[in-house]
Amino acid sequence: MHPRLIPPDPWKWLKNRTLPLLVALIGMIALHPLFVQSGGLADELFPLIVVVLPMLAVAAIGSWRRALPLALIFVFVIAWNWGHDSFDQVAIAKGPTSYFALVYYGYAIWALSFRLFRSTALIDDRVYGGLSIYLLTAFMFSSLFRHISAVDPSAFATMGTGEPRALLWNDALYYSVTTITTLGYGDIIPRSNWARSAAMIEVLCGVFITVAFIAQLLTARSPSHSPASPQHPTSPDHAR
Asked: Which of 115, 168, 192, 231 is the most exposed place for a label (fewest CB within 10 A)?
């Protein structure tokens, strides 16, 4: 077929769309101390950016139809926190917002994985997208750790002294990143059953994402999955 008659690949426009998401997530982790207010509370801009990023990523990489459930959850959570908690961060941490965050991030991770881990996705999109999904999982569990600590202040303790340690939002983010990477400095220890259960689940999610990520990269490099690979004869008739 003449090159001009070959239809364009719609996936080529996906190239490098996941790189801005990855850079933004790394930037939010690196610069999060700038958003810490007195008393350990978060600047209102930080949670807003962290919540909006997955929705924009799903809309850019997938479609606005895919991002519509995220927009609905976002509007509902904003209305709930405004009417029920008056945007009080402590009340929000103790309330059901963390469970909505689990659904929100879980759907965003699924939507991005569904789009990026197809056989037609470009390999660089799988690299940037896989790392972005890994970091989004860390953000998702940080909200859960913050909720567990807010409900039960003795759920976490400080290493050495064993004294209860209430996790603020920046502590929860730090603990979540060190947990999913299995780095585990040990300065924060989960003591309650719910805290330990959440930590174990996050580690398992991190291992699963890593294994799936490597498997997808190997699949992308496999010649048998390349559309340009020649078809080998499988019977004497084809050999003729």
From this structure: 231
Q: How many helices (H) and strands (E) does the chain have?
A: 9, 2
Token readout for 126 is 């799988």
DSSP designation for 166:
-
Residue indicated by tokens 């790392």? 131
Q: How far apart are CA 154 and CA 24, in angstroms?
A: 33
Beta carbons of 112 and 133 less than 8 angstroms apart: yes
Spell out the residues 6+ positions from residue 214 whose beta carbon is closer than 8 angstroms to its own: none
Task: Kindly indicate the confidence band of residue 213, based on its pLDDT and cuts at 50, 70 and 90.
Answer: confident
Q: DSSP code of 187?
A: S
- 156 forms beta bridges with 190
What pTM, to 2 d.p., does this model score? 0.82
User: What are the backbone angles phi and psi of residue 208, rounded to the nearest 5°?
Assistant: -60, -45
Summarised one tens digit per residue, pLDDT across range 132-141 is 999 999 999 9
d(CA 91, CA 151): 10
